[in-house]
Amino acid sequence: MVTINYHNAKIHLSEQVYEPGEDSCLLADTALELIRDGMCILEIGTGTGFVSAVIEANKNIELIATDINPFAARCASSNGINIIRTDMFKGIKSNNQFDIIIFNPPYLPTSDDEKVPGWLNYAFDGGVDGRKYIEPFMDQVTDYLKPHGTILLLISSLTGIEEVMGEMARHKIESEVIATDKCSFEKLVVIKGKFKQ
User: Which domains are delineated in the chain?
Assistant: First the structure.
């Protein structure tokens, strides 16, 4: 079993689960800057549990994570993450309990011939435009976030940054890009969202 260390966290990896990359590191670093002790955090689609593990290694918080992939759920659990194997928010009580909700969705535009076999496809397949999971996420997130809570969403320039921020605006979420990282063929961004009061 391969293990990596990052910001005081020791994370075990699995061949059947998306391996943390530049996107995971950018999201973890950004989350650490915003999260304060005592907060209640939800991570959707945690994968190996990398981002959640980094947060828990550095902050005194309550955290729950979800993932649809059974191998990811097992891997995240082995990394000490309190995880529910479910599709996005299913299985989580909708009582506006979270200070911050974190989501690194499958954001790559994916045609039928680009799909990956098996459960790993859930980590990559963002649909034709890369935004397949953004709208369902936005449709539900208000039921789980505290009134003054924050969304942290990681996407790629390939996903359409303006389009995603437009989708957030349609759901009455004010958004801003708060972190970026230029990779070889794309720019990764973390969008911070807050509900308009």
Answer: 3-195 (3.40.50.150)
